[in-house]
Structure formats: structure tokens, C-alpha cells
Design goal:
Layout (H helix, E strand, L loop, with lengths): L2 H11 L3 E8 L4 E7 L5 H16 L1 H14 L10 E5 L3 E7 L6 E8 L4 H14 L3
Antiparallel strand pairs: 1-2, 1-5, 3-4, 4-5
Helix pairs in contact: 1-4, 2-3
Protein name: Roadblock/LAMTOR2 domain-containing protein
Length: about 130
């Protein structure tokens, strides 16, 4: 699949989605974005930086490494797979692609969406798609 295919599928299938993006965690780059409104490039650049911080910031990495050490786990696998952020007017769902954990899908929806259905749709897309 291509980035654009994943973005189109996400916008079409996730209820009340107003924006979707794909972030490459290894480079911190926004690979693609699709929105119902236009946004300044500065905002789009911040989305990729914020996504990287959420999943792989210093404190998150420390927490993951501490749990691995305590549990005796010797793997490079990341623990944080999905993150949901509720803001005043929007719901933000972040999910790693199962086949490519270094790639995160970001979906922004209106707050009146069905959170369970939205999460299920994002999980389905993240589990089945790759770039």
C-alpha cells in the first residue's frame, strides 16, 4: 500500500475523521497528510515532532527500558503501540503500523465520534496496511 492509500482509507473508514497523517518515527518526518481543512506547514511539522515525542521521547523510552529490565525482556520492541489524546474539540488517535512499527498513523476526529468504533477502525488499518 502507499501512504496516500492508507490516508484515504483512514479518512473514509474512521468515523468523523477530519485529518490523517503518517509519521516515520525513524526520521521524524510527516510522510503524508490528508485533511478536510488546510493547515499551515508549521502546524503539520509540529504534528510529526509531537508524535515522535509521544512514542519515543526520553521519558517514554526510559519507562519502556525500565519495564524491560525489570521483566528481563531483551528485545528492541517498543511497548507503546497506541495513544489516544482527548483535546477540547478533537480526539487524536495515534497507532503504530503492525508490520512497520517505526511508522505511526495519526487520526484526528471530532469529539462526538464513537471512540470504540474509531479505535477499532484505526487498529484494523494499522494491523493490515504497510508502506
Amino acid at each position: 500500500m502507499s501512504v496516500q492509500t492508507i490516508l484515504t482509507k483512514t479518512m473514509n473508514e474512521v468515523p468523523k475523521a477530519v485529518a490523517a497523517g503518517i509519521v516515520d518515527m525513524s526520521t521524524g518526518m510527516l510522510l503524508g497528510v490528508k485533511t478536510v481543512d488546510s493547515h499551515p506547514q508549521e502546524v503539520l511539522d509540529l504534528v510529526s515532532a509531537a508524535t515522535k515525542d509521544l512514542f519515543e521521547g526520553d521519558n517514554v523510552t526510559t519507562i519502556e527500558n525500565t519495564f524491560k529490565r525489570i521483566r528481563g525482556v531483551e528485545t528492541n520492541e517498543r511497548y507503546f503501540k497506541e495513544i489516544i489524546v482527548m483535546s477540547t474539540n478533537l480526539v487524536h488517535i495515534f497507532a503504530r503500523l503492525k508490520s512497520m512499527p517505526s511508522v505511526v498513523t495519526v487520526v484526528v476526529c471530532r469529539t462526538d465520534m464513537n471512540l470504540g468504533l474509531g479505535l477499532m477502525k484505526v487498529r484494523s488499518i494499522s494491523a493490515s496496511e504497510n508502506i
